Automatic annotation (TrEMBL):
This is Uncharacterized protein. It comes from Trichosporon asahii var. asahii (strain CBS 8904) (Yeast). The keyword Ribosomal protein applies. GO terms for cellular component: ribonucleoprotein complex; ribosome. Keywords: Ribonucleoprotein, Ribosomal protein.
């Protein structure tokens, strides 16, 4: 096992290696240019990859009051935690939106279709959802666990996705 994977549990989840990818990135393709003069020249087509900050609900935890105040000074919108500087192909942006964000994507895809970093995020997401489920079962009079944020995926959906 490589050093980054072995030491992953010791590090914070949101501070990670430089520009990891959650989904596999397409390969660079090569071929020939054929201009008007018909002289073939080699060229490469690079994939359309973007480095993005992706908002998360469960993986990042609830934002603190200090973080909210700091975000208010930066912009007029209060932002929660983000996965910072994640590589994503342009064609996969729509897939992430359709799945309901990063957490929905991690729940809907099998682990075999994710990169090693995506698999680690998926494992961490299931750990968080199971701890939320345990909190709910421990306190049946409370309707919602304190860490569960509105719009996040339910614990039952996590169980169903894990069984796939």
């Amino acid at each position: 096992m490589s050093a980054p994977l072995r030491n992953f549990g010791a590090r914070k989840l949101l501070s990670k290696q430089a520009h990891p990818a959650i989904l596999p990135l397409p390969a660079q393709q090569s071929g020939n240019n054929k201009p008007f003069s018909l002289k073939k020249t080699r060229r490469n087509w690079k994939p359309n990859v973007h480095i993005m900050n992706m908002p998360v609900n469960i993986l990042g935890g609830a934002p603190t009051i200090a973080q909210n105040l700091a975000n208010l000074n930066e912009s007029k919108f209060v932002r929660g935690p983000h996965l910072k500087r994640v590589k994503l192909a342009a064609r996969d942006k729509k897939t992430v939106d359709k799945a309901g964000g990063v957490e929905g994507l991690l729940l809907s895809l099998p682990a075999s279709k994710l990169t090693p970093y995506g698999q680690l995020l998926r494992t961490e997401l299931f750990r968080e959802l199971h701890s939320i489920k345990a909190q709910i079962e421990a306190n049946p009079e409370e309707k919602v666990a304190p860490k569960l944020i509105e719009g996040a995926v339910s614990a039952e959906a996590a169980d169903a996705a894990e069984q796939r």
